[in-house]
Design brief:
The complex is a heterodimer.
Chain A: H1 10-22, H2 30-51, H3 55-86, H4 103-111, H5 114-127
Helix pairs in contact in A: 4-5
Chain B: H1 2-25, H2 31-40, H3 47-58, H4 65-69, H5 77-86, H6 106-127, H7 131-148, H8 154-175, H9 180-192, H10 199-205, H11 207-218, H12 225-238, H13 242-247, H14 251-272, H15 276-291, H16 296-301, H17 306-328, H18 334-337, E1 350-353, E2 359-362, E3 374-377
Antiparallel strand pairs in B: 1-2, 2-3
Classes of the chains: A mainly alpha, B mainly alpha.
Chain lengths: ~140, ~375
């Protein structure tokens, strides 16, 4: 594999430069320059104009979104209300005084002795993060 | 000789960059993250299985190969468990210390269960005469003990000590059957492990309770729901007077409470750094001071520490006992046992021989009261 040297196209470059130098250069025409610039800017701005929302359309969209949100909120709060009205006090377990697996819980157990602490840890080991997807149970070796 | 050294040096130079590159590609992972991955893959144990596992791991029940075979000890979690134990990265459980007494510590329960699996797996391999493999699982358990202690709380410390003791006892039951090289190799491995987290480290972590109370007091005091829940828990658990505890959150009362609490805490921490003979009386006096404190909060929240301090020295004594057994093996006798001393009063160890020939190393004084510190050697 060879890398072309920078001088390989030198004769061609020189010929093109010679030809360009021989061409007569017209005087600067400000009118033509500004007209060209306007055309260039116009090309760049066209896509933006195409997707710009008119104020009326934007307002309509916002009103529709607000209405949809209100409807969803109302549906949700009515279902919550329904659930709350169906609630029977006996359905809930009494709230434990101490949070599960917390420092305070374990400290209280440790105060009752090692057996109490380790029995609680054993219990929590079964309760916390119960078995996950069977995919994990495939022996890896 | 010179030629060998030159060859080894060149080989080392050639291999070293490769090892370094491997380290960069797979840097050691925080063991805590690996333990959680292992926990996620743990099979669900029934209550009976869980009890059986713990009884066999602690030695409360003798190892039973048939029963152990029914336990799920060859699951995917064991591979990750070993990776976690082997990791050289610092173990960071990411404990939310700012949660104070309600801080969750779910990793302790999982670690305890997984360490039991490692120990029963070791016993199961010893039963199949796979000594080296069995030993490697005991090493896993020893590493887990150190990782359990990484929380630097008294509870973390207790779990660390329990795992360590289970692993020591399991090795002691088998080590007289190992040849000298294996015994000395195991002793060297134990020596090379990082030290256990001290009881003093664990106690220092308990400062989070008083810090938490102070923070909550500054942020609104007893009206805070979390504070109310803790007051309810403490008073329900210890049968204390709720109104008196709530009164502690009055601006004038709290300042005095915090001063006394912090003073007790720091004096206790200092006592925990002392040898047993010096520290025990001091710790007992400080515990009594806390129990009779005029301020209900430290009285209720102050941890029971006398037992923790005693256990720390008990674990050290068990280490010495195993060291003696690994050094002398079946040749261990009364005279050689007497050259080793317990970590409490510094008395010589004694060797007891039962009618069935089982050897047990025993400390002179019972700890706690009425209970011998002993290590059974051989089954």
């Amino acid at each position: 594999m060879s890398t072309p040297t920078p001088n390989e196209n030198q004769p061609m470059r020189e010929a093109l430069q010679r030809d360009a130098a021989s061409l007569p250069e017209p005087d600067f025409n400000p009118a033509l320059h500004y007209a060209t610039m306007r055309r260039v800017r116009g090309l760049a701005e066209t896509p933006t104009r195409r997707f710009r929302l008119s104020p009326a359309l934007a307002t309509t969209a916002a009103v529709l979104a607000l209405a949809a949100s209100l409807m969803l909120w109302q549906m949700r709060s009515s279902s919550d209300h329904e659930a709350a009205s169906n609630f029977q006090p006996g359905q809930l377990q009494p709230q434990p005084t101490m949070p599960l697996a917390s420092l305070l819980t374990y400290q209280a157990a440790a105060d009752k002795g090692d057996d109490a602490l380790f029995a609680l840890l054993d219990h929590d080991a079964r309760e916390l993060l119960p078995t996950s997807s069977p995919v994990f149970n495939a022996p890896l070796r | 000789m010179k030629k060998t050294i030159l060859t080894l040096s060149i080989a080392a130079l050639l291999i070293a960059p490769g090892l370094h590159a491997e380290d960069l590609k797979y840097p050691p992972i925080n063991p805590a993250l690996l333990y959680w991955q292992a926990a996620a893959q743990l099979p669900q144990l029934t209550e009976d299985q869980s009890n059986e596992l713990r009884e066999m791991a602690t030695g409360k029940e003798p190892f039973d190969a048939a029963r152990a075979a029914k336990l799920p000890l060859d699951n995917g979690s064991m591979r990750v468990l070993r990776q976690a134990a082997d990791s050289t990265a610092p173990c960071d459980w990411g404990l939310p210390l700012e949660d104070g007494p309600v801080m969750p510590l779910p990793h302790l329960a999982k670690l305890q269960q997984m360490s039991s699996m490692a120990i029963v797996k070791a016993k199961s391999l010893f039963a199949q005469d796979k000594v080296q493999e069995g030993m490697s699982w005991l090493v896993v358990a020893h590493c887990m003990a150190r990782h359990a202690g990484a929380g630097d709380l008294l509870i973390s410390h207790l779990v660390q000590d329990a795992i360590e003791v289970n692993a020591l006892r399991a090795a002691a039951l088998h080590c007289l059957g190992w040849n000298t090289e294996t015994r000395h190799g195991y002793a060297a491995m134990l020596e090379s492990l990082p030290p256990l987290h001290t009881a003093q480290d664990g106690l220092r972590g308990e400062r989070l309770f008083v810090d938490w109370v102070e923070r909550h007091f500054n942020a609104g005091g007893k009206s805070n729901a979390e504070v109310q829940a803790i007051i309810a828990s403490l008073t329900a658990e210890k049968g204390a007077e709720k109104e008196n505890v709530e009164a502690q959150f009055a601006p004038g009362a709290m300042a005095a409470t915090l001063t006394e609490w912090r003073s007790l805490q720091s004096r206790l921490e200092a006592a925990f750094g002392k040898p047993w003979t010096e520290g025990q009386a001091e710790i007992k006096a400080l515990t009594d001071e806390a129990i009779h404190s005029p301020h209900p909060l430290p009285r209720l929240a102050f941890p029971t520490t006398t037992g923790v301090f005693e256990k720390w020295f008990t674990v050290a004594t068990l280490h010495t006992m195993l060291e003696a057994a690994l050094e002398h093996g079946p040749q261990l006798d009364e005279a050689s046992a007497g050259t080793y001393r317990d970590a409490l009063e510094g008395e010589p160890l004694r060797l007891k021989k039962s009618d069935n020939g089982t050897l047990t190393l025993v400390a002179t004084h019972p700890h706690p009261a009425g209970k011998e510190i002993s290590l059974q050697l051989g089954k």
